[in-house]
Each structure stands twice: as structure tokens, then as C-alpha cells.
């Protein structure tokens, strides 16, 4: 199947192929890498969307913007009860008694490995001091780790007020004030001359006071579109467009009128289904109005970002951890593993650990309904958590964020800081918050020849048009009335990180490739920055290999660049080196021949989207 996909995608006239390759070879002989990125990357926007953050920037940049992937919209009924500060907070499930028991068991297993006291073990006061480590913040951000977050100013000057018009006309131009300057101006002006901002994106959205009339939305959760009865599909698409459009204007300074001169490289996680990729392409090409776009998978892009061709890529993000093997620049889809935990779960586990040891101050910290608290926990985790033996403690300042009040400071002693990151290997310690997944019928791709639906007639709803996004009330999927055929959902294994890596590599089935992959493990994502994680992965994976396998060496390769940006950088490299651009989709073609429900039209063939990432390799 893989070879068939590759042959279909790379088919093109021989003359065109040879001319393109000769031009590329001559050009590459004389150009230096920095010149190549500057010349060919100035009009390429690389977009790497994730559940918690989006990495976006021009291909010629060294590092992208890393922005929280969320938006807070102003709500109308602010005084209604109950209020929702987070769109899907009603879907959070309470931790059950059985999960509490499993979590405590996992803690004790980890404690025995790290040689620290068990969860409820009382340490006797003896004359002998305990073996203890001290962490004072070892990350580059340590100089700002104790700085409190400030509430976002949600007001802006009303452009219709007379004083604002006079002040702007006197300046001879329109300058966008900073958030602080804007807040001072609105405090000095009367209430009639200020208004609420309609929506707020990025980190500012996470720092909005719970008393303000705003509701936070995260369009992507746990590696999929965050569709639920509380978050309709159309709102998810509108929020994705609003966030990306805001970044393009405010951060990259690319207005809508100039986007026809730019192309987009979409680096998507392996967790995305075909239909989710298609909807993203529609946002990029139709709504954001890029001239063309191409899709690459994160795993393959990560390999190119570190200059490799074969590796087992372990992508540890904020909400999802995925494992996939790459051989000679080609992904092996049967090796994919998806684990429903990530860095945010480690941060919540840090809070649980401190509360259990009674080291957390008596403040109302809620990582699920107060986004600013999760920001604080993430920063504490990045500054202090690491994997090493012995008791690990640190003295830090914890902040409390009460409704509308300035942040309060509480100096406290944090303990057992090496336990939360070990939850990656023992996921029952993390107890991820459980949301019901989107309806499985939504992911049925009725334009996919790989499903047995191509020659079938589907009953049509008379109340819906053939437009791409018909009006939806109540969050029902637009294909809910279609006949449902069983598909192969993305597998989510409830196992630890070491078992997932071992299982993924052993699924390749060839001993020579397995030995190579076990010595070419690549850790990417923000969690990969955890100190001591590399040696822990090597040790735990070696122990997880069955005794009947003739493998005795495990090695994790050091990343050449920041692991958080490896996939983004790989996408930029793939886009710059793609001279033929045969896999790129043009805006007019996508709008004319893309998704038309029930029309029987397809974009070229159904393998096109799935195999784009291999086009450059097989050119």
C-alpha cells in the first residue's frame, strides 16, 4: 500500500521532472544553507498546530513564534449562573476512587525506583540527615520563574469616541498601543470611551480574570478537534481561523491583502484524521487565502529537522505523546502509538503531589477552570522538575490568583519534584482528565477510497445544502444522518512511554531495522527538555525489551536544536528544498475541486493528502 501511494503521488511527466532536478542540482552546488533559507523561505509560512501551543513563522526564521493555541471570546450573559470560564470545563470528569488507588500505587512504585519515602511513609526524626537534592531552577527561564502573571486588560479604546479621534488625528498616524499603555488610557478615560475587546488570543487569553465576561476556547484538544455538545464544529473552525489570522497580522505582519504572495506549509500531528487535515487545508487556502499549501507529518518533519533519515520519533507535547518510526525518510504507519498524556498532565500531577505532602499553600489553585493557574504550574514544572534519584526539594514562590485581585505571593518548599515526570512511564500517576471524544461518525471520511464508501449511495438530508459548512445548531456533526461505516480510529494505548517505544519499534518486524531504531530514538516536544529524561528513557526502554529479542543497546540521540521546534524546522527545510512542488495544492484548485459533500468530486485521488509528506523523498 505504501509503494502504491508513493507511485501515485510522484507520477508526472519525465521531461518536467528532469528539468526541475537539473535546476535544483546546479542551484544547490553553489548556494550556502543560510542563503537558501533566505531566498526560498521569505514567502513560506510554516504552521505547526498543537493542542496547547501553535508554532508558526516564516521558513527563513531561526525559531518560530510559540503561542498558546487558544482564544477567549466575550460572552453576552456574563451574570448567568453557572458561568463557564472555559468552554469545555463541564466535560471534565472527577477522579474516581479506583483511580486514586492506582495513582497511589504508581507513586509507591516510582518512590522505590527513585529511593525516596513512600507516599504515606512517616520519616522518623533521627540525628542522621536524609539524602536530599536541591533544585534552584536550572532552565534559562530561571531568572523570571518567580515573577507573577498580571491580569490581561480586556478593554480597548472606543474608536467612535471623540477624544480618541482627536488624539489619533494629532499623532498623524495610527499606532497600536501596548496592553499596559492601553489599560492606563482606558482607566483615565470614561467608561463610555472604552469597550470590551471582542476576542483575545494567545497568552493574554490565559491571563483573563475569572470575573471578566470571557470564555476560553481551545480548538484542539488531545490531538483532535475539540468538538463536543458544548463546542460545535462551526465554532471550532471559526476559532482556528481567528487565532491564525491574528498571529499572521500581529506577529508576522502579513495582512490579508498580501497573502496571495505567500504559501503555507502545514506540519500536522500524526493524531489527526484525514478529515481534520482537509478542514485545516480549507481554513488555510479558502479563509486565510494563501496561494498554495502542502501537508507534512510531524514525525517525518522532525527527522529532517535533525538531519536524520531513520529514527523512532517520540513527540511529547502538552496533551498527547505519540511514537512513530521513520525508515529512509518514509513513515511506517503501522508503528504509530498515541498516548493520552503530556506536559500539562505532569504539571497537574505536580500540584497533586504537593497537596498530598501538604507543602502547597492554602490557596484555590485549579488548573482546569483557571488557565492562569496552569500557566503557573507549567512554569514551576519547567524550572524545578527533573528525573534523578534521591529526595528532591526546592524553595519557590507560588502565586495565588483570586478573582480580579493582584497576585499573592507564597514562599513554600516544594518536595518530591522528581516524581511527576516519572508519570510518563507510569501513566496511572497522571490520571488525565477524561473528556468524551468527538462522535466517531464525524471522522468518517466519505471521500477516501481507502474506505468502502466510494461506490455507495448515501441518504441525503433535505434541510442541508451542499456547502462546505452548513449552519449547525447544538453541535451536531454535519454528516450525522449519513450511513455509518466502521473506520479504523487512531489507536490510543494505555501504556507507559517505555512500553510504547518498545512496542512501536518491534512492530517493524525486521531485526536489522529494530536494532537501528533502538539506537536512533529521537525525543521532541516541550517535555523532552526535562532534565534526566534521556537517561531514564534509555534505561526504561532497555528493561521493556522482551528477553527473547536479540537487542542489548538503546540510545537516545541528542537533538541538534530546541526539541520544541524540531518539527517546525523540519517543515521549513522540506518546503525550501521542494523545488518541483508537485504535491502543493493551489487555492483555486482546492476551492473548485476540494470537498463537495455528495457531489462525487475529489481532489485528484484519495491518496493525495496521505502521501504528500513523501513526495520530496521520492522525487
TrEMBL record:
One of the Pfam families matching this protein, by short name: Actin
Residues of the signal peptide: none
Gene3D superfamilies associated with the record: 3.30.420.40, Actin, Chain A, domain 4
Region annotated Disordered, chain positions: 159-184
Superkingdom in the source lineage: Eukaryota
Family of this protein: Belongs to the actin family. ARP8 subfamily.
Protein's recorded name: Actin-related protein 9
